[in-house]
Amino acid sequence: MSATPITSPGNPRIKQARALTRRKERDATGLCLAEGIFHVGEALAAAEAGRAVVEHVLYAPDLLVSDFGRGLVARASAGGIPVYEVAADVLAGVAEKDNPQGLLAVVRPRRYRLYELDAAGFPWGVALVAPQDPGNVGAVLRTIDAVGASGLLLLDGGVDALHPAAVRASMGAIFHRPVVSASFADFLNWARAGGRQLVATSARGRADYRAASYALPLVLLLGSEREGLSAEQIAASDALVRLPMRGRITSLNLAVAAGVLLYAIHDSLDVQGRLPG
Predict the structure, then answer these.
(1) What share of the chain is helix, strand, coil (3-state, %, to 5)?
(2) Each residue of 95-123: pLDDT tens digit?
(3) pTM tops 0.70, yes or no
């Protein structure tokens, strides 16, 4: 642990943490922020499993009141991770939460490439085309983890999964599940080469999602919140399913729709006895 507390907002580690709220810095470094006791705990667990690197931990003793949180600081230090004490007002100036818990980590999640993900290691997952809301990206990742799916593919741009709001909404899943960014063209080549079933969603889908046939390896393909999927993307899919809308509202939130569909696919594979272990 650092012998001298950080008391200046101009300290390089504080400036770095603040810079990571900007995408340019995240893209350049591959780093993100884990804020709060739960998220730092998940980052440490991922680091211990070899799925991430925790560059360092910042903590404010005056804000870190829980024994569990203080235990995380000790755990990080015992694991050889640099730990720096920070004045409460300085760390609060970096935190995005209204009631900061006095704990923050700079984390480098493992970077994956599309062609690293084979059918054995990535039997089923989700692909989002140009998502715009980081909260949705994080929430989809959280559900991917909940159902035991493999990971998330982000296609043709959109927000990044290392956005602070995405990290928070993922509840730590960002540190445990593969996330890959790719073009739709590269994704389609990868999917075809691996014999993956592409299941797309549209209000024009012929099959109710509950009656569709799902087979591994599989990718659930969802369009952006505003634009949905293009005609070309729908045409490239193997199955087009719809979510029945009984009321006046014509669509669900992206993360909600993904959650409904992922659990339906989970249950279908489970009934077939094909749910990956």
Answers:
(1) 40, 20, 40
(2) 877 778 999 999 999 999 999 999 989 99
(3) yes
Q: Rounded CA gap, 102 and 73, in Å?
A: 11
CA 227 to chain centre: 21
Q: List the CATH code of the domain at 12-109.
A: 3.30.1330.30
Crossing angle of helices 67-78 and 37-48, rounded to 10°: 30
Encoded tokens for 126? 């989700």
Per DSSP, the three-state class of 12 is: helix
Query: Please, which contacts does 70-78 make with residues 24 or more away whose CB atoms are closer than 8 Å?
Result: 72/37, 72/40, 72/41, 72/44, 72/103, 73/1, 73/103, 75/44, 76/44, 76/105, 77/1
pLDDT digits (tens, 9 = 90+) for 163-221: 999 999 999 999 999 999 999 999 999 999 999 999 999 877 788 999 899 999 999 99
DSSP secondary structure string, 196-245?
-EEEEE-TT-SEETTT----SSEEEEE-BTTTB--HHHHHT-SEEEE---
Confirm or reject CATH 3.20.20.70 for domain 114-272, answering yes or no.
no
